[in-house]
Amino acid sequence: MPLALLALAIGAFGIGTTEFVIMGLLPQVAGDFGVSIPTAGFLVTGYALGVMVGAPLMTALGTRISRKRMLMLLMGLFVAGNLLSALAPAFGVMAAGRIVASFAHGAFFGIGSVVAADLVAPQKKAGAISMMFTGLTVANVVGVPLGTSIGQSLGWRTTFFLVAALGVVGLAGIARLVPEIPRPQGVRLGNELAVFRNTQVLLAMGMTVLGFGGVFAAITYIAPMMTEVAGYADSSVTWLLVLFGLGMVGGNLIGGRFADRALMPMLYVSLGALAVVLAVFTFAAHDKIAAAVCIALVGALGFATVPPLQKRVLDQSAGAPTLASAVNIGAFNLGNALSAWLGGLVISAGLGYTAPNWVGAVLAGSALGLAVLSAALERRDLRRAGAAAAAPADATSAPDRATAERY
Q1: Could you tell me what percentage of the chain is helix, strand and coil, using 3-state DSSP and rounding each to the nearest 5?
Q2: Are the CB atoms for 37 and 27 separated by under 8 Å?
Q3: Phi, psi values for residue 3, rounded to 5°
Q4: Per-residue pLDDT tens digits for 113-149
Q5: Between 20 and 30 A from 118 (CA), which of 4, 139, 149, 281?
Q6: Residue 57 domain-assigned?
Q7: Judgement on whether residues 92 and 136 belong to the same structural domain of the protein
Q8: Which residues span the domain enclosing 8?
Q9: Per-residue DSSP letter, 351
Q10: How much is the pTM?
Q11: Highest-confidence segment of 28-37, 84-93, 243-252
């Protein structure tokens, strides 16, 4: 694999760390600014909303410059946002810093996916994408627990200074290692927007929202589920999340490897198995060992869908993939927000802390249904294209046969 993928993975590691580390530091941030925990929770919600808005906006603004320069600009924006958060004198400034950093998130992964795919042979594209996303998954295993520990012992501002430093390393790596890849000639914002009329692109994004929603329906409420239902101590939740992160790493690498061989079968298996595991998790949550196994499997199966889904979007929007790729990253965050809301609804309805698992199973099963529909429509279109290609040959052969018969 090219060294440029390492630079992209470092950037992804920093972005993944800053996205999730705030969850473990909310009490410290809330106490420092004198706000409630629910108010501090806007730092999580605001970031997710910033990703959804920033992904298409920043990608559209970057259509006139090279992808390498856009990646460097995005990492600079990421560094600025985290420095603003670290130096914030008031909660509002902290929230603004989070939103500035979030604007880099979706566009970085979207454009980075296109760059990663362009760096390798066609049969290795999904593997290259998964290598970049490895930085995001490793962040949940190493960056988030380490950043939380540092923030709790040395102050949360220290964590954000260190994340900003990671961004500087990622920026330097991109500047040094990522080659200047010429943009395809004739591709403009209008071309990029036109791909959203492609049914297959929309179906792939629907799979992203529903499939990833299935994962976070369960994981968003993992703490009360594990402490109130499985019987784990509060201190064990961190290590259960590390287990989830390890599953993410393994699933991401496996998904990238097999998606290059058989993309749609990989989606069938991962989404189908994810729906089953989430349904089983409802009952397994009452046993500590079974619950831990399910947590790892949910992480693995959920992230096994990331490289094939991202590659599916790139394949179906060939010629103008950048905006579609970035919007698909926003779709992951939309799935997070949707599933967290639905999970909260079923808990509020008195169905218990395991009820979000059923919500996740339904969402993942719905994503599988979209995958089957997408493949069926693709087969139909191929048959029609084949019939249309054969028709002119048949039409011209008939007069030739008639002429031959006359002579």
Answers
A1: 85, 0, 15
A2: yes
A3: -65, -25
A4: 878 888 888 778 777 878 887 888 888 788 888 888 8
A5: 139
A6: yes
A7: yes
A8: 1-180
A9: -
A10: 0.75
A11: 84-93
